[in-house]
Design brief:
mainly alpha, disordered C terminus, 150 residues
Length: 150
């Protein structure tokens, strides 16, 4: 029986040692788990901040894209307005040139009629000479400086 009791004591001692080792493992696992949780929480905070920053950046990018599209549209409208204005100025210039030609033709006709009248009568009244263009004050002064205007 001594042998049996000796084996039983050894077995109980080994069991107690295993229980003690198991308890130490559990005691070591708890702080390690807590450390892992704290580390993960810290990383999650950083990731959450990065995600918030990314969302803010995405929102700003979208806003800037909308503004750029609106600016491009506005610029296109301005370009169209400038082109229309240039076209209108060219048309005004064409009308002014046409009016100059008409006035020169009228002066030529007036001079010819004067010459014919002088030929028929020796004592012709004095005719006014043709005024220099622009004779009509209603015509726009396109392309002339203020110092050039009459």
């Amino acid at each position: 029986m001594t042998m049996l009791s000796h084996l039983l004591k050894e077995h109980q001692a080994k069991q107690n040692e295993r229980k003690k080792l198991q308890q130490e493992r559990l005691e070591a696992i708890t702080p390690a788990t807590r450390l892992a949780e704290v580390s993960v929480d810290h990383l999650n905070v950083g990731v959450a901040q990065a995600n918030r920053s990314q969302r803010k950046l995405d929102h700003k990018v979208k806003s800037l894209q909308i503004q750029a599209a609106q600016s491009a549209e506005q610029t296109g409208q301005w370009i169209g307005m400038v082109e229309n204005f240039n076209r209108a100025l060219k048309e005004i210039w064409d009308v002014q040139n046409w009016a100059q030609k008409i006035e020169l033709d009228m002066c030529s006709i007036t001079t010819t009629l004067k010459d014919i009248y002088k030929g028929q009568r020796q004592s012709a009244p004095s005719w006014p000479s043709c005024p220099p263009f622009p004779h009509s004050s209603f015509l726009p002064q396109v392309g002339r400086r203020e110092a050039d205007s009459p």
